[in-house]
Design a protein that fits this description.
By secondary structure, the protein is an alpha/beta fold. 40% of the residues lie in helices and 12% in strands. The protein has one domain: Class I glutamine amidotransferase (GATase) domain (Rossmann fold), CATH 3.40.50.880. The longest helix has 18 residues, at 143-160.
Length: 162
């Protein structure tokens, strides 16, 4: 908690206190922090587990019909939590410019329905209220292209928030 407060430069709360009823949307950015700290995908691949507090928050937001947005590798968490329900996601594509394409296989092994998208693409699962975009999953994407893709993602998130 102390390190989180240092990075956030302010007060932080324990995830156990997070209630979907108090918020309009949950956004989870990707990166290796998500793959190593919110779940164990960065270490265990398809044998991953999701931190219990993260799973509880995701289930709470879905039960409240609140939008859940995930970027980069973070959709692997939704694949694990909601895969048995056939959640629709993107983690990018399987071509040579996607160095983490194996994550798509892992997500499909959990039951997730995968859409291949480039850096500008956004996948929306209206049933589960989940929105995803690949961001840096596309290895040859420029920072500006990633920025533009995340802007497309945020526009879609905003359009679905009630």
């Amino acid at each position: 908690m102390e390190e989180s407060a240092r990075i956030a430069r302010g007060n932080v709360k324990n995830l156990e206190e997070l209630k979907a009823a108090d918020y309009d949307v949950l956004l989870i950015p990707g990166g290796f922090g998500a793959a190593k700290n919110l779940c164990s995908f960065g270490f265990d691949g398809a044998d991953m587990t999701v931190q219990q507090d993260i799973e509880k928050v995701l289930l709470d937001f879905r039960s409240e019909h609140k939008v859940i947005g995930l970027t980069c590798i973070a959709p692997i968490i939704a694949a694990k939590v909601f895969g048995k329900d056939g959640v629709k996601l993107t983690l990018g594509g399987r071509s040579e410019n996607f160095p983490y394409a194996g994550s798509i296989d892992a997500a499909e092994s959990f039951g997730a329905q995968m859409e291949e998208k480039d850096v500008s693409g956004v996948t929306v699962d209206y049933k589960n209220h989940v929105i995803t975009t690949p961001a840096y999953m596309q290895g040859d994407a420029s920072p500006h292209a990633v920025y533009d893709g995340i802007q497309n993602f945020l526009i879609k998130v905003q359009s679905l928030v009630r």
